[in-house]
Prior knowledge:
Elements: H1 13-23, H2 32-46, E1 52-57, H3 61-69, E2 76-82, H4 85-92, E3 103-106, E4 119-125, H5 136-146, E5 147-156, H6 169-181, H7 187-202, E6 210-211, H8 217-223, H9 229-241, E7 250-251, H10 255-265, E8 266-272, E9 285-290
Parallel strand pairs: 1-2, 1-4, 2-3, 4-5
Antiparallel strand pairs: 5-9, 6-7, 8-9
Helix pairs in contact: 1-4, 6-7, 7-9
This protein binds S-adenosylmethionine.
S-adenosylmethionine (SAM) binds next to loops.
Amino acid sequence: MSSKKFKKPDPNIWKQITVAWGKACSPSRPSLGDIKIYGKFILQSIGKKKNCRVLILGATPELRSLILKYGLSKKIDIFLLDLNLEMIRAMDEFVEIPNSKEKRVIGDWLSMPFKNEYFDLVLGDEVLINVSLANRNKFLMEINRVLKSSGAFITRASHENPLAKKFTLEKALNKYSNYYLQNKLKFNQAVNYVLEEIFQNSYFKNPKGLLSLKFLEKDCYKALKSPNPLKRLIIKTILDDYSSLFKQSWSWESRPQQLKKFKEYFQIKEIETARDYLYSYILPIYYLIKKLQ
Ligand SMILES: C[S@@+](CC[C@H](N)C(=O)[O-])C[C@H]1O[C@@H](n2cnc3c(N)ncnc32)[C@H](O)[C@@H]1O
């Protein structure tokens, strides 16, 4: 997403994001499995340090809660960096225990308002997807710049799913409405997975490297006329609760391309993938160590 898009957002968007976040599940939000991996990597990187600084890119409530859970907030200074204060406020609602010590910084990830070598750890959940392919090197270079030597960047980052070429709205509606009827999924999970599959498939319908539901909106309106009331309800929920998603785009690349970029600025210490949700295989968590430039 270009930073421009985020400068003058529709004022209703925050309410919608809060509602949508409340109903969202993994992969959009980190799962319990993801949190466990994040926790392990965080402890490995700063568990034994005293008085360190941690930067969270964005305002992911699960990461903010995790820092508190480990009692780390006593010995670390925590900073949140986002272009939008409203987004941070919207996410506050989902943080288990509010942390008055968090410093909220409004700024661009591509030009961070911090000195060189300021942080021991940078965390970001699915942040790369928000940065255009053209800006990714700049973004990774900025993270590298603000990290102390041997500082860590821990991030869950999705990559393209070649299998998604064959996903269709119709197949997703059939599959997940059946799972719901068989009590294998809750309603919000069925909605999330239909959305996830068309989202992944959109990559193959858009100009290279872009994920956007723009070209699938027509299919969704068509599906509103389905004779099946459950399918109609799933589609109506997607169009009502997630309409802001249809106006945005994100960037993707293949796993080897992503790894190659990471390796320019970081050493790969560990990569681990949660196994507690569908499609977790395209969202590994990377534990990266700053490479001296
Ligand atoms: C889809 S949201 C959620 C992202 C992340 N998963 C989280 O939980 O915070 C994307 C967020 O990234 C922020 N964002 C996107 N590009 C940015 C940039 N260049 N600099 C700072 N914040 C940015 C947006 O303002 C928004 O709050």
